Amino acid sequence: MSSRAAPPDDISPESFFTNWVPAAVASDPSRRDRLGASAHDLEFTLEGEGGGVFGVHIADGAVRGSVGALEHADLRVRLDVSTWRALNRGELSAPEAFLRRRVHLRGNLFLAVKLHVILG
Amino acid sequence: MNARGARPEPAGFIAIENARSHNLRGVSCRIPLRQLTAVTGVSGSGKSTLAFDTLYAEGQRRYVASLSTYARQFLERLPRPEVDSIGHLPPAIAIEQRNRVTNARSTVGTATEILDLLRLLWAKAGETRCPACGVAAVHNDAESVAARLLARFDGRRVSLGAPLPHGPKSAAGALRDRLLADGWTRLLDAKGEVVELGELTLRELGRRRDGLLLLIDRLALRGDGERARLVESVAAAFARGDGEALLLAEDGERVQLREGFACPGCGRRFAPPEPARFSFNSPLGACETCQGFGRVAALDLARVVPDEHATLARGAIAPFATPGGKACQRDLVRGCKAAGVPTDVPWAQLTDAQRRFVVEGDEAEGGDWYGVRGFFDWLEGRRYKVQARVLIARYRRFDPCPACHGVRLRADALSVYVGGIDVGAASRMTIAALRAWLGALALPPAEHARSGRLLDALRARVATADDVGLGYLALDRQMRTLSGGEAQRIQLASALGGTLTAALYVLDEPSVGLHARDVARLLAVLRAIRDQGNTVVVVEHAPEIVAAADHVIDLGPGAGRLGGRLVVEGTVDAVRRHPESLTGRVLRGDFATRPRPRRRASGRLRVVGARAHNLRDVTVEIPLGQLVCVTGVSGAGKSSLVRSVLVGQLTRDPDRGACDAIEGAGAIDDVIVVDPTPPVRSPRSNPATLSKAFDGIRKRFAATRKARELGVDAGWFSFNRPGGRCEACEGAGEVVVEMHFLEDLRVPCDACGGSRYRPEALRVRLAGRSIVDVLALTLDEAVVAFADEPLVVERLRPYVRVGLGYLTLGQPLSTLSGGESQRLRIAAALADERPRTLYVMDEPTTGLHPADVEVLLACVDELLDAGGSVVVVEHNLDWIRRSDWVIDLGPDGGPGGGRVVAVGTPAEIARSRDSLTGAALRGELGGSAR
């Protein structure tokens, strides 16, 4: 139902976190507004073939992506690559994925509530 | 009805500018006057908010504002909707899909006002017949009586007498003195012999006064010459005899005469027919035994002694086996010991006399035991206490009234006939049967002259009720037993029965509960209301209704926060062409439905010989572990089979519906009925409190360091009890300012600013959020934010699963739409999913957009995956088509239904030539899109 652009189907996780997410937030004033002035570091672990560990750094209404584990993260999110792709395509909603235990969270869970502002 | 092309051009538009109530986000749209407009969108998109909380609320508010300040104080005042302006708004009438009637006196006949017209017809055109003689009663005054006597006794000598007033023998002297003083000197004895008053001793007069008549006159009747004298004598006789007189002819023939409306044969008097005498809601017409309810309460011994194998000492008498009944139990045991009734023998083995002793007691014989009945009689005297009323209700049953046999009227009312039937028989007819009877009714010319227009009005009203699909309902059916859809169609029939023009009718899903066959008839009625010059706005999901609308307003695109915007408005074609409208996709027929593989049955229930209501000895198998649809036209017996018989028998409440047996019930441990009625609508209830997820949230707040410093527990964070809540508004967040003849003003509480909590409570933070911040989370957000609190996640899970994740935790339930309310109930059933459970749902697709139906079907599959079985009463063809098994009842409604027409898979039903549901599945009834 969202009118926001979805990432390409064949996007790699690295490209998604380091390029697509920062660009999507930068081009959408409403997303920047909702992020506000908060500063947080989030770590995403994508399990399975083609996966990896990525960081998302939020500060001053902007988002930056990185590759590799973070020493300190306010929120750590773990999911498999197929779940990540299903979420990107809109085949699976985030609450649904969470309730089906396909997404695991650790840390400041209230930050997870804002994930849709960053991711899609 | 006019042809559509012949209707005048629309006079203009209702223009809504920037509507913002609830989740509407500045909706501006136009509703053409004198046209049929459908408001569409997914459940929770804001349809009802636009139609009812904005359009109707403003129309009603303006109407009320136009009344005097005196009149305004008696009317319901609706809040002013949040909208910039609404132009050209006609007076508004809302026809909601909610049955608000709880009164046992309200019936289909009274609600449709058909009974009012029937009462008038019986009063104006009815013929009163003496039940003993079978002849018509006539009006007797001195003039008419004299005329009949002259005709009957012409040429004969007659004596006219009046009975002496009753009184004790000792008063004979006073009687003689009074008669002599008035100039009466002669009496008549039983043989017609004249007795001189002056010749009777006082003892004889006292002894014989009941057999004597006061001789008024003796005369020979010879044509009209004696008319004046006879009239005078009859009048005198009635005056002396308190309306009674006796005529004795010289040949011994005698005629009892009575003044007033009476039988000419036996003289029995009848009250003159008047409308109130045919009303069970009037003291003049209501049966004196049951006060017009048609049934009387009695002690239900089966409930008092639920287990016949229990002994008196071991609590056989259920009301005494509770902590509150200990004293009575002691009295019972003491009384039994004194009377020699064993208390250690099962109730089933006690003799009739012993049981009678227990129930009736022995106080009448001088004993001390007041009996179970005496206990309930004592309770009756304490009905002012709630506990007493609850206890009485628990052990009470209702039997048909022995006096009126359920007709509710006095016997006199049933002596009046129109067309050979009494008003009781007419009020037991179904609307369709009454329509046929009225169509064939031919009144005699005199009655027709008096009642012709009345009869026309009655025929028109009955025809309208039949046309809106209510033909199967009997007039004496209680309103409180009807579904919301049926109650709405009754209001619709009343609206059409009137001749109001230039009004705005706002209807909430009028197609609910209608078989595809009846939707076309409903459309004709909506168009008829429109063609009377009214503007009709329907909140609707049924594609047949939407496709037939003159104008469509599609809201969305999603629900809650994701909805509340105008997606498209215009003609049906404009909506059909719109690329982003879900309704457009449904109208185009390219709404992809999820294929649903058929499930195999895990067992079977067999209902044998079901006979509730109109069911005719129905025997049918219900597969377990499958989605089973019970279908049929309205009144076919679907709810009777499922709700009354199946649920009644399985929940050990056999009074709800009788059958010979339910075979295979051992495979079911529990039955859960998902009721279509909305859950609690208190503004203090919200998804957090309803789901009990608030318990876990409050527990988490209570575990914070700040809460521990304050020394508060989880209960302190409730806004429903003293503690952390704002006491100025008692946790409501707003205060109501009574404005008397102006609408009540609701303003945010000064003390808490609308937050509901005291500042101390708001200072307690969980991950930086206060309790108010948390209540503003959607359910989707809450399951993530409280991922480590199973008490929250598990309780919210079913609500997210049924697609209500967009609601906020703190959204008052009173603001939810009908579709949302029903999904809350389904979520509650999901929360309790268990194997070997039978889930029974009554039209679960009510209020749901086809997109929401998909979500619901997925939930049903979850229940089946968990080992449950689902039986659904449903009209939605898409749902029926995708069910595993269909039981089609009918073929028609009311007396024409109650049989199994077809059973099988949806494909097999579609092949059945006898089944109307089959025809609809084949698309022959124009319902294929639904």
List its salient traits:
heterodimer, A: 120 residues, alpha+beta, Nonspecific Lipid-transfer Protein, Chain A, five-stranded mixed beta sheet, 38% helix, B: 930 residues, alpha/beta, six-stranded antiparallel beta sheet, 34 helices, 18% strand, globular, disordered N terminus, disordered C terminus
Gyration radius of chain B (Cα, Å) is: 36 Å
Provide the structure class of chain B.
Answer: alpha/beta
SSE run of chain A: HHEEEEHHEHH
Helix content of chain A: 25-40%
Please give a structural write-up.
The complex is a heterodimer of chains A (120) and B (930). By secondary structure, chain A is of the alpha+beta class. Chain A has one domain: SCP2 sterol-binding domain (Nonspecific Lipid-transfer Protein, Chain A). Chain A has helices at 13-26, 29-35, 81-89, 94-99, 109-113, 115-119; strands at residues 40-47, 52-59, 62-67, 75-80, 103-107. The longest helix of chain A has 14 residues, at 13-26. The radius of gyration of chain A is 13 Å and the shape is globular. The mean pLDDT of chain A is 84. With 930 residues, chain B is α/β, with parallel strands linked by helices. Chain B is 35% helix and 18% strand. Chain B has 34 helices and 33 strands. Chain B has a 6-stranded mixed sheet, sandwiched between helices. Chain B is globular. Chain A binds chain B through residues 1, 93-96, 98-99, 105, 108-110, 112-113, 115, and chain B through 556-558, 562, 767-769, 777, 779-781, 783-788, 793, 797, 800-801, 805.
Provide a concise account of the structure shown.
Chain A is of the alpha+beta class and 120 residues long.
